[in-house]
Amino acid sequence: MRKPLLAALAAVAATGIAAAPAVAVTPDTASGAAPAPAVQAVNYAGTVALSNCSGSVVRMSDSADDDPALVMSNGHCLESGFPAAGQVIVDRASTRTFGLLNSAGTRVATLRASKIAYATMTDTDVAVYQLTSTYAQIRSSYGISALTLSDTRPSAGTAISVVSGYWKRIYNCSVDGFAYRLKEGDWTWKDSVRYTSACNTIGGTSGSPVVDQTTGRVVAVNNTGNESGQRCTLNNPCEVDANGTVTVRQGINYAQQTYPLAACFGLDSKLDLNAAGCTLPKP
């Protein structure tokens, strides 16, 4: 998990970090190399600010306009605090609010949850809220469409943007690789995305969507980083490979893949943990 927000605020004040503009990454063709795939312009539209974290309005590739909209963040960003290891929360009432941002990062609306559809910190670190508004209502009222979750696993080397609605800041880097297991305190996550060092995320970026710069789709949700080089402690996750070998990468940050969600949400944004292909942990 990320450092407490008060510590992050102090760090920002000390270093003078400012919000970065949303810019597209352009391919380098000066060397004569083959042109890279077209890159989507990544901005803040559809991201949200929570009281303590970041998040985004998300949809599946087959979601309907009249489905209740969903907001995705981290399990450790829940208003009730961190879920225990092994705990899975399903269909819990919630009236949490989210500040919806437009492409420029301006807050244009307050969205409200009707429930926590799913949340856990077991195997992954994710929370999905169902809203009182539909996708069509949000687009009609504010001109903002939801971000679409990719239904396939990202690859190493994928150019990505981590878009923080809390800080109104965009981090651009690449998928460096994957941690077979990522262990932090009492929690263990599977097949976590490891960023290259340019994505030096801070407290408050938890829950930010990780966007594939080529497809514009969300491939992961930002959640943690090793701050001080400690081994497997809170705010200092360690990687554990299939043989049990532990690796500590101080200053490197991580996200949890989100393609497993696509198989678990269906008609009317309803969660079905027994659906074919759904591998999310069950209560």
List the topology elements.
Elements: H1 5-15, E1 47-49, E2 54-59, E3 68-73, E4 88-93, E5 97-101, E6 107-120, E7 126-134, H2 135-142, E8 147-148, E9 159-164, E10 169-184, E11 187-195, E12 209-212, E13 218-225, E14 238-240, E15 246-247, E16 253-257, H3 259-262
Any overview of this molecule?
- Helix content is 8%, strand content 37%.
- The protein is mainly beta and 283 residues long.
- The chain folds into two domains: 5-21 and 150-259, Thrombin, subunit H (Beta Barrel); 47-148 and 263-269.
- The radius of gyration is 18 Å and the shape is globular.
CATH hierarchy class name of the largest domain: Mainly Beta
Number of strands: 16
Distance between the termini: 22 Å
The biggest beta sheet is recorded as: 6 strands, antiparallel, barrel
Low-confidence stretches: 3-34
Described by its quaternary structure, the protein is single chain
Number of helices: 3
Q: What is the string of SSEs from the N terminus onward?
A: HEEEEEEEHEEEEEEEEEH
Strand order of the largest sheet: 1-2-3-7-6-5
Question: By CATH's scheme, which homologous superfamily of the largest domain applies?
Answer: Trypsin-like serine proteases
CATH topology grouping of the largest domain: Thrombin, subunit H
Write down the domain tally: 2
Work out the helicity level.
Answer: under 10%
Overall radius of gyration: 18 Å
So, CATH architecture of the largest domain? Beta Barrel
